[in-house]
From TrEMBL:
Cofactor list: heme
UniProt main location, coarse: membrane
Annotated coiled-coil segments of the chain: none
Function: Membrane-anchoring subunit of succinate dehydrogenase (SDH).
Protein's organism: Chelatococcus sambhunathii
Subunit structure: Part of an enzyme complex containing four subunits: a flavoprotein, an iron-sulfur protein, plus two membrane-anchoring proteins, SdhC and SdhD. The complex can form homotrimers.
Keyword terms of this UniProt record: Heme, Iron, Membrane, Metal-binding, Transmembrane, Transmembrane helix
Family as reported in the entry's similarity comment: Belongs to the cytochrome b560 family.
Protein name as catalogued: Succinate dehydrogenase cytochrome b556 subunit
CDD domains: SQR_TypeC_SdhC
Taxonomic classification: Bacteria, Pseudomonadati, Pseudomonadota, Alphaproteobacteria, Hyphomicrobiales
Subcellular location: Membrane
TM stretches of this protein: 29-52, 64-87, 107-130
GN (gene name): sdhC
Membrane topology, record value: Multi-pass membrane protein
Amino acid sequence: MDSPHAESGRPLSPHLQIYRPMLSMMMSIAHRITGGALYFGTLLVVIWLVSAAAGPSAFSTVQAIYGSILGQLVLFFYTWALVHHALGGVRHLMWDVGHGFGPERELIYRVCLFGGIGLTVLIWIVGYALKGAAG
């Protein structure tokens, strides 16, 4: 038996299988994913702060976990999620005031994408440089 929509001759709503992935679509999905990832990352910050308040033993344990290769990788992606989501927020703010809907829209998406990656790498380079200068 066909669906009621097929009998009425009305078109069915298109699905993701029909749409060609576009940068705007991918950036919207990435913005939502990074927003969710920030909840997890904020939990990591809370754990770090609580361990600092709990004493030297707890703090050194958390520092060892966060300082491991896996810990550093998680923190790197948390940094990227934070920067990417912030740039997406600026993009949405621009839209809220009525800017960025013309041909420059694609450029804004690219600036958010590559700016997030570039700023994340820059933050980590500066962080390691300051860590080396302090130690």
